[in-house]
Amino acid sequence: MTESSNQGSEHIIRRFQPEQIDEALAYFNEHGYCVFSKAFDLALGDAFWADVEHQIAHNEQLSYSLYGKIYQGPNTPPDGKKLPRIIDIESHSELARQLILISPIAKFLHALYGYPATCMQTLTYKFSSEQRAHSDKVLVSPPYVGPYDRDTLAASWLALEASSEANGALIIYPGSHKLSKRSLFDGFEDSYEAYTNWLETWLQENGFKGVTFRAEPGDILFWHGDFIHAGGAIQSPSDTPPTRHSLVCHYARIPLEQPSLDSGWTRVKLPGGSYYQLASGTAAKTSSPASLMHRIKSRLASLVRSSIGT
After folding, report:
1. Using CA atoms, how far apart are residues 138 and 105, in angstroms rounded to an integer?
2. Where do the domains of the chain lie, and which CATH numbers do they carry?
3. How far apart are CA 83 and CA 80, in angstroms?
4. How far is CA 154 from CA 32, 200, 220, in A?
5. Integer Cα distance of 291 and 149 in angstroms
6. Helix, strand or coil for residue 232?
7. 144-160 as b/e: b if 16+ CB within 10 A
8. Nearest partner of 177 among 27, 2, 295, 18, judged by Cα
9. Which of 187, 241, 272, 294 has a 20 to 30 A CA-CA distance from 39?
10. What digits encode the pLDDT tens for the residues 66-124?
11. How far apart, in whole angstroms, are the C-alpha atoms of residue 11 and residue 100?
């Protein structure tokens, strides 16, 4: 286990080796997060990102979240591919499927759940989202999953590049998972700005200080579903913002026998757990526009209205 200090905070981020599952789990329960160092092969991470770039250039079935809307194919504005926030790339990339339940993730989540984990959704980022402080707890609602135990919600964040203040390193709030708090849907009239304004005041009133997570390639950060975190502001003075390649995955403890609730998605088993796969040909269907629009609107509600991600 290694430690690193963080300016402006007394909290020290501890890093665990992939085999230190029990120690990491105790730390996670106490602080709401934990970090594993050298948790995946850097060559795999590089190959995955090369595949991401290939998919952006050649795959018209990719879905992007941009400025509060979901786009796909030729309807995607130029910024959608320049500033990609790709939704569920594991439906398109074998390398993504290798990463979402790679051994350290599957083992840690099995220790957390006492049960194989299910990856419900992913987001792939080229840059920091610069998203303000938030909790994921009520925001992750893929329609094909249906109701699930939100107390089991957890996330992994895979660092594919080093991060610092220059490229918008994540900001985390240790211990923030322990206290109950209002959600976006508790009196904010679905106003994300009102919610984040309130949450930042709540953090200050309860003594939670943001800590910058300066990641190294190969790090995997896990956080609790009600853990407060933010995408750091990109502070580089360069006219060209520096990248911060990352893959974010959301998981829960979902009964293995429970199928997908949407015919456009199939639940698929992997070593260590399962995930949801966009059914072959779904994105290309034109014979049932009403059904496709329903799926798009449902995903919009889940992924865009609430601005999930970091």
Report:
1. 22
2. 2-304 (2.60.120.620)
3. 6
4. 10, 22, 13
5. 27
6. coil
7. bbeebeeebbbbbbbbb
8. 27
9. 241
10. 877 899 988 899 888 888 899 999 999 999 999 999 999 999 999 999 999 999 999 99
11. 29
